[in-house]
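Next comes this protein.

***
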Amino acid sequence: MQTTSTDLAQHAMVSTRVLYSRLRSILISILLAPAAGLAASLGAVVTMGVLRLGLGIPTPVELFGDFVLKHIDVGTFIRLLERFAPHSKTGPLSLALLGMIALGVVLGWLYAVIALVKLPTSGYRPARREWLTASAFTLAMATLGIVLFWDELRQNLFGLTVGWATLVSALGLVADFAIYALVLCLAYRALLPKVARNGVAVVVVQRRQWLARAGVAALTLGTGAGTLGLVQGYLQEYASYDGFSPAPPNGFTPPITPNSEHYVVTQNTIDPTVNTDLWRLEIVGLVGTSGSYTYAELQQLPSTSRAITLECIANEVGGRLMSTAIWQGVTLRTLLEKHGGAQVGASYIAFSSVDGYTMSLPLNEVLAEEPLLAWQMNGQPLPYRHGFPLRVLIPGRYGEENPKWVTRIVLTDHFVGGLYADQGWYHGFLHTTSRIDRPAPDGQVVLGSVTEIGGIAFAGNRGIQQVEVSVDGGLTWQIATLQPALSQDAWVLWAWPWKPTLAGAYTLMARATDGTGAVQTSQKQGTVPNGAKGYPVIQVTVA
């Protein structure tokens, strides 16, 4: 049987390796390295998503976002919120994710330069230099991430304590970057052109090369689809209720706000869903005896119930970001006494939450407010969005200083920075405020009939002594009737009957006097960064 020249060519065996020119090798690396980088980046993203949704470990993208937020001022923060509205949280995170993927693509070139693989290669197994380069990439990126995000690593979606959360988050970074480096190393080697070894037909080499490159392409497409799926899963848990504050029905605010209607604001894209089997409350620092409590042990402590009103620092004059609930828990003073009290030199107290949030205030000021560590809200376990399993309530302070999902209390001799404090937000006592709930703004009032003007007033634990109403833009004032406050720390409901005798447009205003005798200021001030001030003003028409 004769063999044709074509058959001989297809089954030729290559026994020598002719290296490409330097220019040709550079051009091939320029084309193939970013492809390997893309596959590696998407593989790392899938790993991050699985760890985030499956184990509650924060992703590098989230850690980067938390880090940046602590290092910008409040003005920049507000500008970013406005720029990305209505996607103020997901927009920046999406850009950060795309930026991370792009960086991973670029690092493919750096890997190719350092690995310095001679082309064509003789096989699919990375050489020692390639493995060392991948290991160096893992070590360098993980070390940089851990050092840079050290203060952010303490968070865990499922409620691990600060120490364990820090360790697990650090290991998560190592896993993320190790997957990136491993895929980069293997994919780059798979994509490179191969030379046939002795005894191997060229056609076999070409077929294997095609299959290897198809495999890298399939991996890239698969991890890309996985990334999209994980992003969708992430967004399904998005805290879209941020800023929730429903208006009272018919202008009548109930003394106690139902849990489902209590205003809620969160810094998180996804709020924690704490597992009480993992969660602990730790008492550490300059305290007589350190200790920790499980959720069950915590509820065995002496508890008390109290009506406390919360107001967000972003609440505008006359705004709805304010609510009142009956909270049950142990007082901070009782808890500290069980641990021997504060040591000499303990001048600050810092609270840490499972979502990484930290807040610090002078210890004496906090204790003077008689704060409560609450595990119940209106007779029910704390809802997740309100801080389950435990939150701090410090009467007289804005909501940002009443942290949720608390896991550690530290007594210290220095101020501990946090998100809002580092940005430059106000962290003093809240301002006296009032609100007109009825009649509705721009509404109509019937001439000659009695219309009740009513609303709420609040001054933290200073209480409310008096509320005055004006229907002529502040020229004259009438004293409203106050309902008894549910506690010194709760808002007061007020009302005044008005019987207009002339038709026309009217400007209604209100002002409150707190328990110390200080009158609410008329000086207008916006919410950023020191909290709103000024009288509530609405316009109505009498006809």
User: Anything to note?
Assistant: Residues 1-15 have pLDDT under 50 and may be disordered. The longest strand covers residues 504-514. The chain has three domains: 22-236, 253-423, 433-542.
